[in-house]
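User: what does the whole thing look like in 3D?
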Amino acid sequence: MAEIYRTADSKGRVALPGFANAMLIIEKIDDTEYRVRRAKVIAEKDLRFHEEELPLKLSARDASSVLEAMENPPTPNQAARRAAKRFRKHHG
Amino acid sequence: MADWTIERLNSHHEREAFCCGNASLDVFLKTLAGQYEKRRLGQTFVAVRAGENAVCGYYTSAAGSLDLNALPEKQKKRLPKHPLPAVHLGRLAVNQCHQGRRLGETLLFHFLHTALDAAKSMGVYAVDVLATDDKARGFYLQYGFLPLQDIPLHLYLPMRTIEQMFDATG
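Assistant: Here's the predicted 3D structure for the full assembly of 262 residues, as structure tokens:
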């Protein structure tokens, strides 16, 4: 990422190229570092929540595969076993 | 991984700066998670660094179910008439500045471990999740979640598989 240098004025104001007339999110990382991001404003009515799609009715073939997994549950894969081990080690 | 502490969401947790890159997941944590707790619609667990209150990641879970009503009558005979009980992972998100450090994995396995505990005292067939997009779907697939064919973002994992995961480590 290119670094740019700006000098703050007496009130601590800095001009940021590319951020004019934008809603910004300024996140303090520590006493000498801030992260500036352009906020994306989304109308509340446009926010999509999962619950709006529930309950999901399973199709016949999906219901059939769930039934199969109920009778013959898959054994956990290596990634899952390793992750469970890591979890147990630090949080178990 | 050991840096994180996972605890129930409470009023001391700082949520305002949380940004995971998905607006609806950010808004949920900041404005709705507390209401879900109060109304017992969902339980939110947050990851914080030791001694700090800023939320680094969170997940919300609730009771759910899998409706197998579409099965042919012959197959349905082997099942109860009600939907199969499940634990639903409603949301899981990690603050952008903590992504890539296995915090998502830690939260997921905290959820699985909690669901397994719940299944010791009540009937739970599986956990299920509705992934937000293909990237999230890939995250669950890598740990063996089973995707549905007709709703590809809907994945589940039988409790007996989860039990084996943790048995192997215990």
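In plain terms: Residues 23-38 of chain B form the longest helix (16 residues). The CA atoms of residues 9 and 34 of chain B lie 8 Å apart.
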